[in-house]
Amino acid sequence: MARLFWFVLGVVVGFHIKEFKQFLARFKWVFLVTAVVCIPLGMMEWEAIIRFSGQDWLEHRETILDSIYSLAFIFAFFAFTNVALPLNKQVSDLGVKSFGIYLAHIPAMEFTARGIYLLIPALLGVQLLFQPIMVVFGLGIPLLLMAVVNRSPARRYYSYIFG
């Protein structure tokens, strides 16, 4: 049902893009603050859901807070399109490498999580530390691997390996 909402929203926005841009310009800071605030709230919400369920593991289900975050993030992203970002070149460089990151991030994150499980299992219960570590390693290991391959004799195969 949630996917239907996003599809319909995209169609409506597409037909009313001028009015939508004016709407975004008026409320861009509200969307940005909402997105930033929803990050820790969403983490705390899932911690509460897991604790109150009495189970060790739950399948992911999209909550209302997840949808609010998604909407606020998308709207803030489009509202600030004309703003010069401080790390614009670095973000653009990541965009060029996004397919390679996509291909390599799953094993990187899995091995990172398993390493944490074996070496520091208590860290798994502290999501405010665990999640940033996963993001850094999930992004850093693929980028490091891509840089190593790009500087090695396997460079000629780089485009086949990482797109």
Walk me through the structure.
The chain has 2 domains: 2-79; 88-162, no CATH class. Helices cover 78% and strands 0% of the residues. It has helices at 2-15, 17-53, 64-79, 88-96, 98-119, 127-150, 158-162. Helix 2 runs antiparallel to helix 3 (64-79) and helix 5 packs across helix 6 (127-150). The protein starts with a helix and ends with a helix. The mean pLDDT is 89.
The rough form would be described as globular
Order of helices and strands: HHHHHHH
> Helical residue percent?
over 70%
Number of domains: 2
Number of helices: 7
**Low-confidence sequence ranges:** none
Main sheet characteristics? none
| Gyration radius, rounded | 19 Å
Structural class given helices, strands, pairing? mainly alpha
Distance between the termini: 33 Å
Number of E strands: 0
Strand content: under 5%
Quote the average pLDDT: 89
Give a brief rundown of this model.
With 163 residues, this protein is an all-alpha fold. Helix content is 78%, strand content 0%.
Looking at this protein, list some descriptive labels:
single chain, mainly alpha, 163 residues
Q: What order do the helices and strands come in, and which of them pair?
A:
Elements: H1 2-15, H2 17-53, H3 64-79, H4 88-96, H5 98-119, H6 127-150, H7 158-162
